[in-house]
Amino acid sequence: PPETRAAAPARPRRGPAPVTDVAKLCVCDLLVAQCDVNCCCDPDCSAADFSLFTTCSVPIVTGDSRLCSQKAATYSLDVKANPPKRISKLIDHVNPSVFCIHSTNYKQALSFSPPEMPTAQNFDRLLKQYGSATFSVAPDSWNVNTDAQNPSDANETYRYEYGVPIQTVDAFLRLPSPVVSSWCSDTNPAGFLVNQATKCTRSVSVEKCDNIQAVSMLFYINSSILAVPKSSQMVNITVQSIVVQSLNGTRTLLNDSEVLRLPMILDELCINIVLGVSYHITYTDGGEIIEAAASFVLGAINQAALSIEQSFEISFTQVNTKPVPLSGNPGYVVGLPIRAGFRPRGYPFPVECLLAALVLNTNKYNQLTILQSTSNQDCLAAQGARTPILFGYNMISGCKLRITAAMKCQPLAENLLDLLKGQSFPEYVASFGNSQAQDVLDWVPITHLHASEQKIYPAFQTPCQIPVSLEIEVKWTKYGSLVNPQARIVNVTATVTTTTWKQLPSGRERTIPVTSSVVFTDVSSPAEPGYKAWPTINVKLPFDFFFPFV
User: Fold this and answer.
1) Nearest 10 degrees: CA dihedral of 412, 416, 422, 426?
2) Regions in the chain scoring below 70 on pLDDT
3) What is the pLDDT of residue 297?
4) Same domain, 517 and 368
């Protein structure tokens, strides 16, 4: 009734608790654990990096633009300061639109839940719930009391993110490493998706070796890993392999890796002490750890040993994918292979089918390779011999082709093209050394060019062309911070040069050279810290501009 509504106290209207902390959002933060140029919200940037910025590429960061009222983070540069510094503020942003969302109280819409697949056990229940003409997916309660919402709970992410320490039942997964000196410190946590390899020194003695926890296998596998942070689901660390190293350095792989081998004193020796541990973590694309395995290297020490050197390593592999070695993180490292791949049929569906394979010594996995020179320099004998293209290394290789009068032009041209390019020449090259297959924008398409001799033939003649050289030019640039620039490939061009086929008279032969080459070109714009680079003017001067000087 109207009188009841009039008597009821008016409930104060407050803005909803923020679901997203805009101070932690950064849309221009593209490099992992690296500072992005002119990205003022990048948490990896230091004050020294901000002093080199010229502008803020993203001046304001907001959450959902459909909300009526929300917090917004603004970023700017104080150029009058010496050196220039970043200014960040958190302000209230009001949506001027009449149609806006006041409260995001439908919690199921804040995340995607995979649908439940019907099985023989749940089919009747699903049919009863969704089998009618209409059904409701509303939550049990539409809680509009915004005061009861806890912003800290709303910001909680129940998945592992890059760099987050891997949690265990008691603390976190330890990856011992040297801190100040070369001695091992067991307080170094293993970060999610952070591949690490460390070496450190640990003090030991034969008399006390069985009481030192850090030299026992049990110390590294006795604590289960949490599948996701702050969850009750645990993943046990299994022993994948055990290698025993003798006093003279000889290593032997044990067939039985299920037996736990603890340190023990035997004839003035301490055996089964841990010299190396290698963790391998398997995770899903949702940031959940599903498997954890450890490989051990066990050794022995005598009474003369006062310390040992231990090595630790951790690597990560996404489930249902093949591990691919990286050529840098993120930028390419000089001397490592260039990563290449192919676009699958039906692209962009599915994107994850993009093949990203490293260059090996053969072309088995469809990689970017060039012709490998052989001792006899015979092109027909060199077919199938490939060598990897290494970043930063200009290379040239070739062979000699003996042409006889019995050879036909078209089959010879096809064989020479296969000889220069290989059986499967890739379509894309990874721009970074750690580009993932699912990140399609991180892959640069290879541009194919054709060059031939400029000759004029009568209209009734159709001369045949045979390829004689393949020239690959890789253009790269320095990307990221000026303090630690990363090598990034921006363009790859493959140019095939052909020559005109001339049919030889019967009994005659001739030899032609066939070459392959790779050239790396640095196209970085010259810049100095604190100064803007001069613009480049693309003009062509007259041919006699410098006359009479050369």
Assistant:
1) -100
2) 1-20, 106-113, 132-157, 323-324, 344-367, 382-383, 453-462, 526-550
3) 92
4) yes
A 10 A CB-CB count for 295 gives 16
Classify residue 140: in a domain, yes or no.
no
Share of the chain above pLDDT 90, in %: 22
Locate 189 and state its tokens.
């946590």
> What's the 3-state SS for 166-203?
CEECCCECECCEECCCCEEECCCECECCCCEEEEEEEE
Give the residues across from 184 on adjacent strands.
178
| Token reading at 94 | 């009001």
User: Token match 């592999």: residue?
Assistant: 317
Both tokens assigned to 396: 């040239």
Tell whether the torsion through CA atoms of 405, 409, 414 and 417 is positive or negative. Answer: positive
Q: Based on the fold, state whether residues 251 and 351 are members of the same structural domain.
A: no
- Burial readout 94-125 (b: 16 or more C-beta within 10 A, e: otherwise): ebeeeeebebbbeeeeeeeeeeeeeeeeeeee
Q: 369 and 297, same structural domain? A: no
Q: DSSP assignment of 63-123, as one string? A: S-TTBSEEEEEEEEEETTSSS-EEEEEEEEEE---SS-BS----GGGGS--PPPPP-TTTH
> Model-level pTM?
0.44
Contact status, residue 366 vs residue 357, Cβ threshold 8 Å: yes
For residues 253 and 389, state if they share a domain. Answer: no
